[in-house]
Every structure is written in structure tokens, then in C-alpha cells.
Specification:
By secondary structure, the chain is mostly helical. The chain contains 14 helices and 2 strands.
């Protein structure tokens, strides 16, 4: 029964992410149109508008862009954290047999792009951006894969979802460790107290999700002022939500259901519109051949598929894992390319990596190009392979 619940949750998540991926594409186009018309200045001024309030002891007065990147994205990371915990407890990551392949493939898909980026940027002003090509955008990747429908095996979709979830987990760890600013221990202590309170509620069997959400909101404030990126509060909150392996909907599953549509249909599109506003300028294409551009484009477009495929191949050859049912190595190659769609998380890390607006624009343009290339080539490879199989049959 637990397996049925897990498959239903995955089906809902997959379908939601599929539509969310298509919606994200539309929002990217809208954002690019705005950034390259007379609306660009007005839109940027809107994003820079400060809203909120401040008192002697509380500061919550931030720009709309900050509220999007630090506030709404914390909700996105909350959903990611819920998905990670569920997969570990009862999903594709709940057993060594099922978890080994996506975990090792994700590790390969993180290490190789980071190495490629570092080879181009070591010792330069852009060296700090090594985390940019590490991430896979699960919404876009599943959205592209869903366009193939029954032409790809179901096991491949589950494998991609599990891989992307592990990928997100590693990106979260990288952000927490390497992209945090100067730490303020007093705020960290207050945040730790809120986290301890959530754990206590879990231990005492509290089922109402507000016992976790409200301390999580307070923890967000403390973490935001601590020097660690505030989105980590979403992940920590997710880890404290109770869940079970039986057929009764747990608080974790209940919250995951409630957040799935708002995150995929509202939060991610808002993030895409606010952060993809790239104003095309003369020489921007030439920037793709700079150290920064090459590190990102080659890291995502080549590093991701090489890392994913190589680690998958080694895992199977060493007999520590096995391919999903009905999946071939050509499927894995195509999936690896879809893993190069970094978009949302890559842009997010780019914003953390560089304070210079010009570098942010160049990085976002390189991410956009690499993601488009990865999506088109990955889709084409998987689609053509299916046609050859039909012809052979």
C-alpha cells in the first residue's frame, strides 16, 4: 500500500513538473521580451522596489527581487526538502539497490561540470562560480522528458526524478557551505533553537503542520541574518516533518501535496520572469567564448552528460547497480543531456556567486544557451532512438 501511495505522489509530481516546465519556458520568453523592450527599465525599477517593515529589533524591509529570491525560493526549497525526505523514507532512495544508480550518477553529474568550469576559470575573477553548472532543473528536465510520453520507459522518468532530487540535495549542501557570507553566530544560535523546537515537535508526535511551518518562518528570519542563505530554512523545516511508510497520508505528504502546484505554477514562473531578464547587448555572444561562458556552457552541455553516463556505466559494470527496466545506454545518454538543463538552480547559484551585474548577465546568458542546447539535443536523441527502435521492430 505504501508503494501505491509513493507512485501516486510521484505521478502527481511528475505531471505537475511537466506542465510547470512548459510554463517556465513561456515565462522565460516573456522575461526576455520585457528585458529587450521599452518596459525593461520600468520592470527593473519594480523589482528594486522595497516592501516590508523595519523596527528597532526587526528588519524585514527588502526589494521585491530579494523577497522572490530569498523568500519564495525558501518555499521552493521546502518542497525540494520534502521530496528528498520522502524518497529516502519510502521512495527510490529508500533502499541501497534503488538508490545506488541515481546517487552515483548525480555525483558524477556534479563533479565533472565543476571540474570543467574550474579548468577554465581557476585563478580568475569568476573562479567562485564553479557551482553554477552543477545543478539540474528538475521542472524543465521532466517537462522535456514528458513531451516524449510513452516513447521513453517509465523507469527512465523515475530515474531522472531521483537523480535530480539527489542533485538538488548536493546543490543545497554546496550553497550552505560555499556560498554563505560572513557568519553571525548569535543568529545561527536562534535559528538552531527553532530547528530544535521542530525536532521536539516531531519526537512528541505533533501532526499539525503549523507546528513546523511557524517555527520555520522564524528560523528563516534568523538564517537570513546569519550569513547562510535563507533558503536553507526551507530544507531544514522539511527534514523535521513527520512521515510514515503506511497508507495513511502523513503531514509531510499532506504539505507536499499542498505546495506542489503553487511552487510549479506560481513560484517558479515568478522566479523565471524576475531572473531571466537578460538584456541582449553587443558582444554578449562573444562572451560565450570567455572563461566564464565556456565554463558554464561546456560544464552543463558536456560535463553533465559525461558525468552522469560515466558514473552510471561504472556502477553497472562494477555490479553495484543496475539500469532501470527497459532502459538502454542510449536512454542514459539522452537523460544525461537533459541533466544539462541547469536553468533555475544554476541561475540561483550564479546570483550568489557574483555581485557584479555584468557577470550575472553573462552567466545567465550562458546558462540559457547551455540549457536550450541540452534540452534540444537530449530530446532529439531520445526521440530519434525511439523511431529507430520502431523501424527495427
Amino acid at each position: 500500500m505504501a508503494k501505491l501511495i509513493n507512485l501516486k505522489i510521484f505521478k502527481r509530481f511528475s505531471e505537475s513538473s511537466s506542465f510547470g516546465g512548459i510554463l517556465l519556458i513561456v515565462c522565460v520568453i516573456i522575461s526576455l521580451l520585457i528585458a529587450n523592450t521599452s518596459f525593461a527599465t520600468g520592470f527593473q525599477n519594480f523589482l528594486n522596489t522595497e516592501i516590508g517593515f523595519s523596527t528597532t529589533g526587526i528588519h524585514l524591509d527588502y526589494s521585491i527581487l530579494t523577497w522572490i529570491n530569498d523568500g519564495l525560493m525558501a518555499v521552493f526549497f521546502l518542497l525540494v526538502g520534502l521530496e528528498i525526505k520522502r524518497e529516502i523514507v519510502e521512495g527510490e532512495l529508500s533502499s541501497i539497490k534503488h538508490a545506488t544508480l541515481p546517487v552515483l550518477a548525480a555525483i558524477g553529474g556534479v563533479i565533472v561540470p565543476a571540474i570543467i568550469y574550474t579548468l577554465f576559470n581557476e585563478g580568475t575573477a569568476t573562479a567562485n562560480g564553479w557551482g553554477i553548472p552543477m545543478a539540474t532543473d528538475i521542472a524543465f528536465a521532466l517537462g522535456i522528458l514528458s513531451l516524449l510520453g510513452s516513447r521513453v520507459p517509465t523507469g527512465l522518468k523515475i530515474f531522472l526524478a531521483a537523480l535530480a532530487i539527489v542533485d538538488d540535495l548536493m546543490a543545497i549542501i554546496v550553497i550552505a557551505i560555499f556560498y554563505s557570507t560572513e557568519l553571525h553566530l548569535n543568529y545561527l544560535a536562534f535559528a538552531g533553537a527553532m530547528f530544535a523546537l521542530q525536532i521536539a515537535f516531531n519526537r512528541f508526535g505533533f501532526k499539525n503542520i503549523w507546528f513546523y511551518i511557524l517555527p520555520g518562518m522564524v528560523m528563516w528570519y534568523f538564517i537570513h541574518h546569519s550569513g547562510i542563505h535563507a533558503t536553507i530554512a526551507g530544507v531544514l523545516t522539511a527534514l523535521t516533518l513527520p512521515t510514515t511508510e503506511d497508507d495513511v497520508e502523513s503531514p509531510l505528504e499532506k504539505l507536499e501535496h499542498a505546495l506542489s502546484n503553487p511552487v510549479n505554477y506560481i513560484i517558479m514562473p515568478i522566479f523565471a520572469i524576475a531572473n531571466t531578464n537578460i538584456t541582449f547587448q553587443e558582444g554578449m555572444v562573444n562572451g560565450l567564448t570567455s572563461n566564464l561562458g565556456l565554463g558554464i556552457v561546456l560544464g552543463l552541455f558536456l560535463g553533465k552528460p559525461i558525468g552522469i553516463f560515466l558514473m552510471s556505466w561504472l556502477s553497472v559494470k562494477l555490479k553495484v547497480a543496475e539500469l532501470p527496466e527497459e532502459t538502454t545506454w542510449k536512454h542514459i545518454a539522452g537523460l544525461g543531456l537533459l541533466g544539462g538543463i541547469g536553468f533555475t538552480m544554476s541561475i540561483f547559484i550564479a546570483l550568489l556567486s557574483f555581485s557584479d551585474a555584468t557577470l550575472q548577465q553573462e552567466a545567465k546568458f550562458a546558462i540559457l544557451i547551455a540549457s536550450v542546447l541540452s534540452g534540444i539535443v537530449g530530446y532529439t536523441l531520445l526521440s530519434s532512438y525511439n523511431k529507430k527502435k520502431k523501424q527495427a521492430a
